[in-house]
What does this fold into?
Amino acid sequence: MNSSQSKGSPKTPERKVRRKTKKTRPPGYWSRTRKLVFRAVWAFGWRMGTILFIILAISTIYFYSSLPTADNLVDGRTKGSITFFDRNGKIFSWWGEQFGGQLTVDTVSPHLINAIIAVEDKRFYRHLGISPRGIIGAIIINMREGRSPFVGHGGSTITQQVGKLLCFNKPYDSEKWPEPRDYEKSCRTNTLWRKVKEIPFAVALELKYTKDEILMVYLNRAYLGAGATGFEAASQRYFGKRARTLTLGEAALLAGLLKAPSRYAPTRNLTISQRRANLVVSLMEDQGYISPNAARDAINNPAQLFPESTNKSGGHYVDWILQTAPGFLTYDTREDVEIQTTFDLSIQKALEDAVREVFSTKIYKGSNVELAVVTMSRDGAVLGMVGGKNFEASGLFNRASSAYRQTGSLFKPIVFAAGLEVGLNYRDTYIDEPITVRLRDGKTWTPKNYESKYFGTVTLTEAMAKSLNSVAVQILLAVGRDRVASIARKLGLKSQLVSGPSLALGTSEATLLEMTGLYTGILSGGWEVIPYGIEEIRLKGEDTVLFRMQGKSGQRAISGSSARQLVYMLNQVIEHGTGQRAKMENWQSAGKTGTTQSAKDAWFIGFTSNYVTGVWMGYDNNRPLKNVTGGGLPAEIWRLAMEKIHSGMKSIPLL
It folds into this structure.
């Protein structure tokens, strides 16, 4: 049945599969399409190109019209600088951005021009301000190193760098940028917009100025580290010479700083600077500026800094000068200022060496104990200053001029001076014994001697030598607190004085600078001596003195007779009393120790016939010192420093 059904079934008609016929393009279709696309791109391109050209032209014209003459672009600093001279007329420090004076291409060493072009822009004299090859190469390098195309290498020509130095004619706003460095940094930020902006500005510079004028602006405005703006300032800062006298090696070193002034500054790491200079020399040789022999000689004899450039002494001294000088001639000045000071580098080094020796041999490493040292002449000229154990730094807290500490027994000579002024003399006697004083509030106070030792009948000289508290308080009670305070004021002490009898034991606070000045007044016959560090201030290149603060005596504080007796008594402190560790060989000296309650402060101030030096030691947080008194380490630092200061000098009697 199945078979019959199969036979009788009609056949299923076969389905015809239609094949897709391939569309055929008319002849020349692709050629016409390419032409249409090309025409569209070309039409868009030339229109956009025209628009960009117009924008570029308008921008260039705008920048061109806003540019002043080249001479007005030479010095773009927003603040002035200060150069500090020591008592011998030698530079020992700088502050602010230095500008050495205007340079032109004709007034510098040819080596410098060649070095700059070799390392910064070898096609400088052949392009119109921009280098497409350099920009594309920089983008490729940046992307290869995983950075944004416009971060890192800039591919800038010297002309473009001048544009950045000029901040594209954007005026400085002190409210927007409190520090000039922030303003300059904003102009160097690598962004696409800034890169686009560079092009018309660079073209405007090229159209406005000659190549030599553009290079002149670059020579004068480039920052070269260590506060030096321009190659003249850098030449003087690092080598102590004018830019026109630079050698090949020196010129190469300066040119090498342009890439990263702070990193390559020779005062930071001379070896790195010299290595960079060698690269510049090699580029100069490759580009035909120098012969192989000249290159070899420059590499084998690298540039060396002049001694003053690496001087780190006197940082605290400079800080103090800036505090005492008029603000309109220092922090606020837009001029270049020169300050003639009383600073003596040899004395400063003597102080630093003494501190270094004691701290390295007598104080354990890691201790937070601090100190301050001041030396002045008998007319009050401050010759050296250490404001803390980190004496190579500046801008830190200056303990010599700004730390107010209790003076302890250092104040006793003022009390004794009051006694001498009312008729006592150095041979008069007092009974050193425990005493009790009734205070105004009805309470009692019993001052004690060191270690509670008492010596009975003693002369004033012995009482001073042994620093006896009992005798000092008895004298103050006899002459009156107001008389003692008056003498302290007349000798130059400006700090607030306590009102009670503890004034005799130095419970008032003062700075080391104040107290050293006070002792200078004793040495100077009883006249007030005003400490000073500035002799003259004038503008750079001018003879007119704008400010003068030379040594002068103030009012008479005590009689000459009282002063001479005090000098004798203070001499006995060193000869037979608490200050024996300060005794110098072959030099008569006088001084006084001071140790405050709980040994929170340790002092020694003393003098010879020539110099007065004060030393303070203590912790910033008022922690008690362990096993340190004024007659210990402070006296030892004083002796070491004064022996170095007086080395080779003829001894002059003090008494």
Observations:
- The radius of gyration is 39 Å.
- Residues 29-66 form the longest helix (38 residues).
- Residues 1-9 have pLDDT under 50 and may be disordered.
- The first strand starts at residue 81 and ends at 85.
